């Protein structure tokens, strides 16, 4: 009996130590490739203002470029925003950071509030902060016209977090929409995946239609300037009939649910095996 008791105690201690070791295992955050940007300075973080803004000891305010947090509210933020802010505190308060910004000094480095737009890397551990938030499902990718850099890297990390159902991706209200369900999220940021039924051009604007009736079904509109940027990548949007795409942006009501594509980074063509080529047909109006 005594031997059995000793065995149980030893086994309990072993399991306790093993559990503690597992709990203490460090989180591995994705590394960033900042070749699209320029290292403009290093600084020390004084405090975290909110999940997207940090204050430096030199009193500059940095806004994290390329991210969107769905429940961030200036009056009462939701659980995702609160968790993202706590994560920034743990990662950044008192830490030295590297600040990466657009290569052109007169384009995309500050906003109208005078805040500096940047990608941030914590010097200790080379932790890319945007990548860290995305990998935990605490933000969505939202590249802008002035700050589209690193979008492909961020989209890959977001996809991995979505597949793992981390953070916001566990919540049904943030699920990726289909053309049939897009209407319920009008007047807000959304991500929609669907197969293009037809392609049309009207007065230099190209439309990707996702239903039989373009007057009521989900549509993506693409102005000439954005279309040219996409064409420079060797992509012909007129051949998108039958392709399955994922698009993000502000979802509004305009002849049905509608997203105006403002940058090529907002649209992804999904792998060939996920596409149904039988649905596509290209037409001109």
Keywords:
285 residues; alpha+beta; OB fold (Dihydrolipoamide Acetyltransferase, E2P); 8-stranded mixed β-sheet; 5-stranded mixed barrel; disordered N terminus
Q: How would a crystallographer describe the biggest sheet?
A: 8 strands, mixed
- What percentage of the residues does DSSP assign to strands (E)? 25-35%
Which class best fits the helix and strand makeup? alpha+beta
Domain module count: 2
The SSE order reads HEEEEHEEEHEHEEEEHEEEE
What's the CATH C level of the largest domain?
Answer: Mainly Beta
Q: What is the third-level CATH name, the topology of the largest domain?
A: OB fold (Dihydrolipoamide Acetyltransferase, E2P)
Uncertain parts? 2-22, 273-285
How far is the first residue's CA from the last residue's CA? 88 Å
CA-based shape: globular
Helix content: 10-25%
Number of helices: 5
- What's the architecture of the largest domain in CATH terms? Beta Barrel
What is the alpha-carbon Rg in Å?
Answer: 23 Å
The tally of strands reads: 16
Mean pLDDT: 88
Describe the structure.
With 285 residues, this protein is of the alpha+beta class. Helices cover 22% and strands 29% of the residues. It contains five helices and 16 strands. Strand 2 and strand 3 form a beta hairpin. Helix 3 (129-135) runs parallel beside helix 4. Mean pLDDT is 88; it is low at 2-22 and 273-285.
């Amino acid at each position: 009996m005594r031997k059995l008791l000793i065995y149980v105690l030893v086994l309990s201690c072993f399991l306790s130590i093993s559990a503690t070791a597992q709990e203490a295992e460090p989180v591995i955050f994705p590394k960033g490739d900042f070749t699209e940007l320029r290292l403009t300075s290093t600084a020390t973080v004084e405090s975290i203002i909110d999940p997207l803004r940090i204050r430096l000891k030199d009193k500059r305010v940095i806004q994290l470029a390329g991210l969107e947090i769905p429940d961030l509210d200036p009056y009462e933020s939701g659980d995702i925003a609160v968790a993202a802010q706590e994560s920034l505190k743990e990662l950044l308060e008192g830490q030295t950071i590297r600040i990466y910004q657009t290569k052109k000094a007169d384009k995309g480095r500050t906003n109208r509030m005078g805040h500096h737009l940047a990608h941030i890397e914590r010097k200790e551990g080379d932790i890319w902060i945007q990548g860290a938030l995305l990998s935990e499902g605490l933000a969505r990718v939202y590249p802008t016209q002035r700050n589209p850099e690193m979008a492909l890297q961020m989209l890959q990390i977001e996809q991995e977090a979505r597949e793992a159902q981390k953070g916001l991706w566990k919540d049904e209200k943030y699920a990726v929409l289909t053309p049939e369900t897009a209407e319920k999220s009008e007047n807000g940021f959304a991500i929609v995946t669907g197969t293009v039924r037809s392609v049309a051009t009207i007065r230099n604007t190209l439309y990707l239609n996702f239903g039989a009736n373009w007057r009521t079904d989900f549509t993506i509109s693409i102005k000439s300037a954005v279309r040219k940027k996409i064409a420079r990548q060797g992509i012909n949007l007129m051949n998108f009939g039958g392709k399955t795409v994922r698009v993000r942006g502000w979802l509004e009501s305009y002849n049905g649910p509608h997203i105006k594509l403002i940058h090529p980074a907002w649209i992804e063509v999904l792998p060939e095996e996920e596409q149904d080529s039988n649905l596509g047909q290209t037409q001109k109006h």
